[in-house]
Amino acid sequence: MLRKKRNLIPFLFLILLFLATITASWWLPVSPSFMDSSLRLMAPSSEHWFGTDHFGRDIFGQTIIAARVSLLVGFTVALLSTILGTVTGLIAGYYKKLDSIIMRIIDGMLAFPSLLLALALVAALGGSITNIIIALTFSFWPVMTRVVRSSVLQVKNIQYVEAAKTSGVKDPVILSRYILPNVLSPIIVQGTFIFAKSILAEAALSFLGVGVEPSIPTWGNMLQEAQIYMTMAPWFSIFPGIFIVITVLALNILGDGLRDAFDPYAKGKKKAKRRPFKRKEQIAS
Amino acid sequence: MRIKHTLQLFTILILSLVLVACGNESTSDETGEGNGERKEEQTGGTLDVAYASEPDTLDIMGNASSPTRDIAWHIFETLVALDKDFAVKPMIAEDYSISDDQKVYTVNIREDVKFHDGSTVTAEDVLASLERWRLVSSVGKTASENIEEAIVVDDLTVEITLNQVYNGFLDDIAAPKTGLAIIPKEIAEEAGEKPLTPDQLIGTGPYQFENWERGKEIVLTKFDEYSQREEDWGGLTGKKEAILDQINFLIVKDPQVKLNGLKTDLYDYAQNIPTDLYEAIEATPNTNPVTYINGYSMLIPDKSEPPFDDLKVRQALNYALDKEEIAQSTYGNEEFYEMDGALFDPTQTELYSAEATDSYLATDKEKAKELLAESDYNGESVTIMYSNNNEAYKRISQVVQQQLEEVGFVVELEPYEWATYLEKWQDARNWDIVTIGYSTRFSPNELGFLVQDTGSSGWYNSERWSELMKKWGVATTSEERQEILTEMNQTVSEELPFLKVANETTLDIMSDEIQEYDAWIGPRFWNTRKN
Amino acid sequence: MLHYTMRRILAMIPVLFIVSVIVFMIVHLTPGNPAFLILGEDSSPEAVEQLEQQLGLDQPKVIQYFDWLKNIFIGDLGQSIYSEESVTQIISERIGPTFSLMIISILLTLIIAIPIAIFIVWKRNTFLDPLFLSGSLLGTSIPEFWLALLLVLGFGVSIPIFPVAGYIPLTDGFLSWIHHLLLPSIVLAAVEVGLIARMLRDSMLESVNQDYTKTARGKGVKERKVLMKHVFSNALIPTTTVVGVTIAGLLGGTVIIETIFTIPGIGQLLIDSIHRRDYPVIQGVILFIAFIYVLINLLVDLLYAFLDPRIRYD
């Protein structure tokens, strides 16, 4: 999967960003939270690669540190959504009786544009990293349920699953040993997309001032503060913005590449893609 | 067939878009020409003001916040008011006299001053307003202790007798915030201690209250029967001519939106722009900066509860702060702030004293750590509350958080929208420190952040300060007053009821269509025209 | 068709039921007393009690829910805590700008996405296809608010051809209406175009290799004609679905875009209400948007079934 260069580069970028941000305090020359009012709004230089912000903080350091929240929120939401979505999706796909109940609930949840649902939830819960994770998970896992369920429906009637069923293998075993491995690829692909979307959503929430506390550096918070300096100090908004784009793009390329790698349709020479309506499920949010 | 139709549709849509683009060019040309033609002086018109925070009430008697003040100034007037040099001059009053023993104030009311409801101001209205003012205004409450009685002499004359010599009385009734605004007797009695409701907003000012759409706009219209004075006094008195027909105060929080909106003619005036943008604004055509002194920014700790009920923790707080750093980070441009520990502005010569303000810039991180270790503070989270409608207070809070955490405080920031913020402020459980600015004040009575045992002062309770306030009331000479001011500074320095950050100069912006605008100490749009 | 329509409408009911439960939960299942949430932590016990009675908060949750639901059916979404106006009234005042923004954005998205998709399918075996695939991913990776800021800087401030903020109602003139909406719509479209073009490309590519196209080619019909006649016309039907998907993306995006461009629509109302902790309005707006979304999807499904009769018998 990662052998392809197209997948490898974004993967390496994400790993590098992760390592850079968790080790930042060891290698950054100045603490990114260090304020020095004599250094306000300096243009990029050899000392401050991305320039400085309105508190005289180093924007490069801030941008690197801010990746922590983005990656933390993105990964946790992707993980939680995957767990919740997989469990519900497996159940819905496998048990016909529960299917309609679960899917009605999922349909209801999908009737909200995910960012709006997250906004309302954060409004009720209050803005903190934990609450943002809760809100985004709640908004994103129904998509996962749908994806898993439709994959389960496809593999459920494969012969060896049927065979296992008739030979009296218990349902949990069938689900985890026989079905889950067969639906793993769409789960991973969808998980990657949720990761990407959560980073964008967190940035949007912080930008709107309902996200993470303003004193914690996040890309969204930085852009919110940079807004009024758009003309005076464009580097302040440009660099964090570029980091969001690259990170999210890396995840999207990775997800896309993984999908192609997993996709039986795409394995042959023909580049014809899968049926379009599956895409609706994966894209619509 | 279907394809053909679709393609046709595309062509039409694309063409229409192109047309739209062209059409716009022509419209903008037209407006450009229009501006050139209309050179002669214009009267009438509507002024759109982008205002940062929505007030929670327009009752200027009871509410000392700037959003209330700025809008209510157009609606309400006082018996006497400050002129451009901050001297007390008659407004609704024709004149006044003070008895030789300095205890009896006789005020003659001008004839035929009309309220917005059409009735005429009489001595009864003044008396009823005075009674309400004594109940609801923080300044009025202080003044009230000195009032023996107030009586109606005739229809246009009132006589107020004090129980002792109290020289702050005229300053108190003329206070630009929470001053003695004159309202009709029925309304004063009906409202009592409650804030005035929108239909009770009846004053005598050049503009009358028209409409308030919460969250969106407050509309004032010209009061046709306004009884105008003719003196060129400036400030809040003298000639106040309503040239514009209508003023819309639009609630716009985002500074970037305000700036862009002014550039694109959406607004004529935008209040409270981050001072960092000053140079950019000067370089922008058709946009003029407006600057005026606006008191100072400060931190008020809650002295009724731990940790800041402990003087040691407050001292640690003070030593932890590097105020020059805070001010520079917050205001950026040095033209817009001044490091000065005094209670009043240097331009207020009678009130200004910078003596004994030693603790103002006493930064010593080590000492802060020591004091903190000696105190009862044990790492509980300190909540700094601020209003997110104001960029400056947000930034002060952020830098303060940073500096406090350096010495061992644990700090949390709580931003709220202005009205919610004011509400939260009144309960000590909601906060440990508030970040706020107080606009320019004109007597020690008006310093809301020192009014004993109130939410606004963070429940400050000091006999020493109360004594000084009493002394102030009876002081007669400038020297005496200077001495008291020095003692006041001393008290603040030692008791740390609040921590001053820096004197602020506010930056507003206006379109160059606005003519003859006088900034003074806050936005007032009478005598102003728009071309 | 009528039978199908009825079935689809009936299928909406459980979805809307779930929607209403979720919206109800937003306020009622959060920690703490909703009355405190509404009045503020520092409110007096009397005020809290009064509000509890007024809102029926002393009733069991289930009863509260059904009371609330009953009011919704008569169009009563409650009252704003902040302005004390009825929520229905407030929302109805804000619909115009949001709908205007959505319409222009959808048109713009389709105008750009459809030709691109057609072009890419035509050139499907060239380097343009992989380039397009990466390009479409870029669109979905850009935060809308950031793109908006860049465009405002570029086309509102540096080269001022568009107004940077504000909204002019259609009734005040078509040209200024569209002029004010174009820049925000471009931002919204830019984010959606990649996705939409890609979905169209995919569905067209599918029919490229269908038997009937192969037969046509076998008969010696020219490739361009094959594409025109069989591929594109077949792709128009899925386009209707695409509109549904676009709307979903746009509804989320408008919140941010309205805030940046100060368009007084539903999105801005939501953000303002969140800052004011005005829960009845937040609830009302979310419910309204979800309802609109469900409704639009219903219409899209019906349109789809109308265009492609096979669907009805699925």
Automatic annotation (TrEMBL), chain A:
<keyword id="KW-0813">Transport</keyword>
<feature type="domain" description="ABC transmembrane type-1">
    <location>
        <begin position="67"/>
        <end position="255"/>
    </location>
</feature>
<dbReference type="InterPro" id="IPR050366">
    <property type="entry name" value="BP-dependent_transpt_permease"/>
</dbReference>
<protein>
    <submittedName>
        <fullName>ABC transporter permease</fullName>
    </submittedName>
</protein>
<keyword id="KW-0472">Membrane</keyword>
<keyword id="KW-1133">Transmembrane helix</keyword>
<feature type="transmembrane region" description="Helical">
    <location>
        <begin position="115"/>
        <end position="141"/>
    </location>
</feature>
<comment type="similarity">
    <text>Belongs to the binding-protein-dependent transport system permease family.</text>
</comment>
<feature type="transmembrane region" description="Helical">
    <location>
        <begin position="71"/>
        <end position="95"/>
    </location>
</feature>
<feature type="transmembrane region" description="Helical">
    <location>
        <begin position="233"/>
        <end position="254"/>
    </location>
</feature>
<dbReference type="GO" id="GO:0055085">
    <property type="term" value="P:transmembrane transport"/>
</dbReference>
<dbReference type="GO" id="GO:0005886">
    <property type="term" value="C:plasma membrane"/>
</dbReference>
<dbReference type="InterPro" id="IPR000515">
    <property type="entry name" value="MetI-like"/>
</dbReference>
<dbReference type="InterPro" id="IPR035906">
    <property type="entry name" value="MetI-like_sf"/>
</dbReference>
<keyword id="KW-0812">Transmembrane</keyword>
From TrEMBL, chain B:
<dbReference type="InterPro" id="IPR023765">
    <property type="entry name" value="SBP_5_CS"/>
</dbReference>
<keyword id="KW-0732">Signal</keyword>
<dbReference type="InterPro" id="IPR030678">
    <property type="entry name" value="Peptide/Ni-bd"/>
</dbReference>
<feature type="signal peptide">
    <location>
        <begin position="1"/>
        <end position="21"/>
    </location>
</feature>
<dbReference type="InterPro" id="IPR000914">
    <property type="entry name" value="SBP_5_dom"/>
</dbReference>
<dbReference type="InterPro" id="IPR039424">
    <property type="entry name" value="SBP_5"/>
</dbReference>
<dbReference type="GO" id="GO:1904680">
    <property type="term" value="F:peptide transmembrane transporter activity"/>
</dbReference>
<dbReference type="GO" id="GO:0042597">
    <property type="term" value="C:periplasmic space"/>
</dbReference>
<feature type="region of interest" description="Disordered">
    <location>
        <begin position="26"/>
        <end position="46"/>
    </location>
</feature>
<dbReference type="GO" id="GO:0015833">
    <property type="term" value="P:peptide transport"/>
</dbReference>
<protein>
    <recommendedName>
        <fullName>Solute-binding protein family 5 domain-containing protein</fullName>
    </recommendedName>
</protein>
<dbReference type="Pfam" id="PF00496">
    <property type="entry name" value="SBP_bac_5"/>
</dbReference>
<feature type="domain" description="Solute-binding protein family 5">
    <location>
        <begin position="88"/>
        <end position="458"/>
    </location>
</feature>
<dbReference type="GO" id="GO:0043190">
    <property type="term" value="C:ATP-binding cassette (ABC) transporter complex"/>
</dbReference>
<comment type="similarity">
    <text>Belongs to the bacterial solute-binding protein 5 family.</text>
</comment>
Automatic annotation (TrEMBL), chain C:
<feature type="transmembrane region" description="Helical">
    <location>
        <begin position="9"/>
        <end position="29"/>
    </location>
</feature>
<keyword id="KW-1133">Transmembrane helix</keyword>
<dbReference type="InterPro" id="IPR000515">
    <property type="entry name" value="MetI-like"/>
</dbReference>
<dbReference type="InterPro" id="IPR035906">
    <property type="entry name" value="MetI-like_sf"/>
</dbReference>
<feature type="transmembrane region" description="Helical">
    <location>
        <begin position="143"/>
        <end position="165"/>
    </location>
</feature>
<feature type="domain" description="ABC transmembrane type-1">
    <location>
        <begin position="95"/>
        <end position="304"/>
    </location>
</feature>
<dbReference type="Pfam" id="PF19300">
    <property type="entry name" value="BPD_transp_1_N"/>
</dbReference>
<dbReference type="InterPro" id="IPR045621">
    <property type="entry name" value="BPD_transp_1_N"/>
</dbReference>
<dbReference type="GO" id="GO:0071916">
    <property type="term" value="F:dipeptide transmembrane transporter activity"/>
</dbReference>
<feature type="transmembrane region" description="Helical">
    <location>
        <begin position="177"/>
        <end position="197"/>
    </location>
</feature>
<dbReference type="GO" id="GO:0005886">
    <property type="term" value="C:plasma membrane"/>
</dbReference>
<dbReference type="Pfam" id="PF00528">
    <property type="entry name" value="BPD_transp_1"/>
</dbReference>
<keyword id="KW-1003">Cell membrane</keyword>
<protein>
    <submittedName>
        <fullName>ABC transporter permease</fullName>
    </submittedName>
</protein>
<feature type="transmembrane region" description="Helical">
    <location>
        <begin position="281"/>
        <end position="307"/>
    </location>
</feature>
